[in-house]
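tl;dr need the bound structure. longer version: we got a ligand (zinc ion) that a collaborator sent over and nobodys looked at where it sits. i said id run it. heres the input, straight from their email, havent touched it
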Amino acid sequence: MVEVVEEIKCSNCGAPLQFEPGEIIVSCKYCGYTSTITTREAFTLEHSLLLNQYTNSQITDLMYKWMRVSFAKPSDLENKAKLTEANLKYLPFWSVPVEASSTYKGVFERTGLNIVKEGVIKKNYNWLVLGRRAATFPTREYEIPLEGKIPFDFTRIEKSAQVLNSEITELEAIEIARQEIEAHHKFLASQDVDKIIEIKTEFKVEDAVYIHAPIWFLAYNYKGEVYRIIIDGASGEVIKGEMPTIKFSLF
Ligand SMILES: [Zn+2]
């Protein structure tokens, strides 16, 4: 059975909008106008783009270079690894400027004495949240190079690249940022005291930036197993990479 989907037109130029189920912030491929699908309202926040700086073969070279300089690896990895996949995707991120201040009280037990201690953790963040629900991405390991951002522009995106739209609103992104920062501060407080009695975090949040960033998803085959690598297409940095574990033998 063919599902009938209401065609939604760009309210700026009238062209049909293309988007996947679940996506709610959508940019028009023809004029670049960005709007919220659910409310049909114009997207009023900053929408930025980071440009991809690498070709397919340059990204492959970066993968082999990463293998070469990695310390704990099988010695034949670079020679035996075969690239099986290299896909460029523009992922939607929310960068949320937050000033977060936590006051906590806890018990310091390490000395054998139970000392009640208080402390404050106050930090400024541009907290990064991926705008997709089901996908996992190592956001904390990704230093998004915000200094290179330009206003969003479809003409600067490769035709072969896949552009994913956000499935969450700015408010949801802020809520996720708050929860993650709260958990992060709890972790920081637990470095200072052994048992937290109470912790309270206050937030000052400014307008988020919606940004599309070029991310390369690579896969390689090594001795019949597939491993994955994620590379930042703007900086060339390996964000995360899987590597065969070396089997140490004792005898
Ligand atoms: Zn349009």
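gonna send this back to them w/ a short note. The mean pLDDT is 91.
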